[in-house]
Design goal:
Elements lengths: L5 H22 L6 H10 L2 H32 E2 L3 H7 L8 H12 L4 H10 L14 H37 L4 H30 L2 H5 L5 H11 L3 H28 L13 E2 L2 H32 L7 H34 L3 H11 L6 H27 L12 H23 L4 H9 L4 H12 L1 H17 L2 H6 L7 H10 L3 H28 L2
């Protein structure tokens, strides 16, 4: 039975569209006046952007690796009171965007905040009598990124420890190694590729962030791109900075792939891990070690948001928030639906024709998640704006009236940017679901006379309903939280909950920003709870 030629062709088209923003940024390096712009950037802001970005990545990388690996080891290998709760509770910070956490901790730790006010009232101090760490700084931003992003490492490292760590750890212990030596010499090296993948994801999110570093006044590539595009109106400078940031991300991806390629392990004996039961001080230490990241990454900021929303909240709460919620839900729902449809198309095309070109397209689409939203925004605006002007000119020639900006004047270009950024999320969820559909099912459908399309409709889609729902929810929430691309790409008078939160916080109206921030966190809890449920089912 012939495979429909439409599927591979559509897959190639999707891959090219996803790669277009990065290609347009790269090609813009050869535009006229590039040399002068690059020289100006190198002489003024570029050294600071590079230094801050490198230092931020170094601090965040060490932090998320230490916290994520530590709690993953405790939950996977040991047993202590509260372990079952921490298995899923340690994922809760995924629902808290880093920029929201930045607003909360600024309100808590600033000079007039409750923490410093309590210290002054308790000890009778005045300004200048004591030293207090400045949260709005590069180390403060790194600390918040660690609190928000350590679940990437925890989730992957925990799986690695459960799958590979049990028998080898016990074998090392039986040969006389202490628990610490067995962990350091055996379990940790075997989990290193997985840990590297989690750290790489956290660093990609760090480089992609705009709200936190902008609010803390830490100059990085993302803030520089936004400033060059909007404040200076210099598209070439924005493209230059975007290309260099893209190079940073590609280096991270290559390092992560190289780490996986150099360290491959196989374990022949698979059995359920016999957890070491901790008692007394060790159990209390493990409990506190797991409680601290959950507290500072979710419980404390979420509780403070609830308090601010109930006591103050946004004065515009009401009809204004209906419009904001409508904009957010419309953009998120449309993007998620299209992402799931395209992910199904790509995954099924690869299933039917697993050629080298199809695998290359999958890799190309997967890189979209590694590209920061600011780079995608610049890469989308450059070609889409030209296409918009061309369409407007042709429309005027054909029909004698100017239609205005068709793509950038609505949410079309914004949805395109979201798809470039988050299509890989949906693709991973669909691919995971397809692996559970055995070839025997397809062979049985084929023997009953079902063609590829009929097999997709009657066999694959019913079995993929759970994976498709997961993919929809993950993309939906990612779009709800996304800030850099939304700030750059949104059409006129199209504010969302994310942009409302950023706008109010940037005006130092933190209490009013709590309402929109709390709405984003509430929506983010949905996929986190689904992920937690899967973890509970896979014990």
């Amino acid at each position: 039975m012939r495979i429909p030629a439409l599927l591979p062709s559509c897959s190639i088209l999707v891959g090219l569209l996803v790669a277009l923003p990065a290609l347009s940024v790269g090609l813009h390096l050869f535009a006229a006046g590039t040399g002068e712009t690059w020289a100006h950037l190198a002489a003024t802001v570029l050294p600071e952007y590079v230094a801050n970005s490198l230092l931020l990545c170094a601090l965040v990388g060490v932090g998320v690796a230490g916290v994520g690996v530590g709690v993953a080891w405790l939950v996977a290998i040991t047993d202590f009171p509260g372990r079952r709760i921490f298995e899923w509770a340690l994922l809760l910070p995924l629902a808290m965007p880093a920029y929201v956490m930045a607003y909360v901790y600024t309100d808590l730790l600033q000079f007039v905040g409750p923490v410093q006010t309590f210290l002054r009232e308790t000890f009778g101090w005045r300004r200048g009598d004591y030293w207090f760490p400045e949260i709005r700084s590069l180390p403060g931003a790194a600390l918040l990124f660690v609190c928000a992003l350590y679940p990437y490492v925890y989730l992957i490292a925990r799986t690695a420890f459960l799958e590979r760590g049990a028998s080898t750890f016990e074998a090392a212990r039986s040969l006389g190694r202490s628990a610490w030596s067995a962990f350091w010499r055996v379990s940790l090296p075997m989990a290193r590729p997985a840990i590297a993948a989690g750290v790489a994801l956290a660093l990609m999110e760090t480089l992609a962030d705009y709200g936190t570093v902008a609010y803390f006044a830490v100059p990085t590539f993302t803030t520089g791109i936004y400033r060059a595009w909007f404040s200076l109106g210099d598209r070439t400078a924005a493209a230059q900075l975007s290309a260099l940031l893209l190079l940073f991300v590609l280096v991270l991806v290559l390092l992560e792939h190289a780490s996986r390629g150099r360290a491959r392990f196989a374990e022949t004996g698979r059995r359920k891990a016999e957890r070491r039961r901790l008692l007394g001080a060790k159990a209390a230490g493990a409990f506190i070690a797991c409680l601290l990241p959950v507290t500072f990454g979710f419980l404390l900021p979420a509780g403070w948001l609830v308090k601010l929303a109930l006591e103050v909240g946004d004065a515009e709460f009401g009809p204004r928030y209906v419009v904001l919620a409508k904009h957010s839900f419309t953009a998120a729902a449309v993007s998620a639906l299209i992402a799931v449809a395209l992910a199904l198309l790509l995954a099924y095309a690869k299933r039917l024709r697993p050629t080298l070109s199809m695998r290359a397209i999958q890799r190309l689409v997967g890189l979209g998640y590694a590209v920061p939203g600011a780079v995608i925004a610049v890469g989308v605006l450059i070609p889409v704006t030209r296409l918009d002007h061309w369409l407007a000119t042709r429309w005027l020639d054909w029909f004698g009236e100017n239609p205005g900006l068709i793509l950038t004047g609505g949410i079309g270009a914004l949805v395109y940017a979201y798809l470039v950024r988050f299509l890989a999320v949906a693709q991973n969820a669909i691919e995971a679901g397809l692996t559970r559909i055995t070839p025997n099912m397809e062979a049985a459908a084929k023997s009953l006379g079902c063609g590829p399309w009929e097999s997709l409709r009657r066999v694959h889609l019913p079995l993929l309903s759970g994976s498709a729902l997961t993919a929809f929810l993950l993309v939906f929430v990612d779009v709800m939280k996304e800030l850099p691309a939304t700030l750059v790409m949104r059409p006129f008078n199209f504010d969302t909950l994310a942009t409302q939160t950023y706008t109010l916080a940037a005006d130092e109206r933190l209490a009013e920003a709590s309402t929109a921030a709390l709405a984003i966190v509430a929506v983010g809890l949905v996929p986190v709870m689904l992920l937690s449920r899967r973890i509970g089912q896979g014990k």
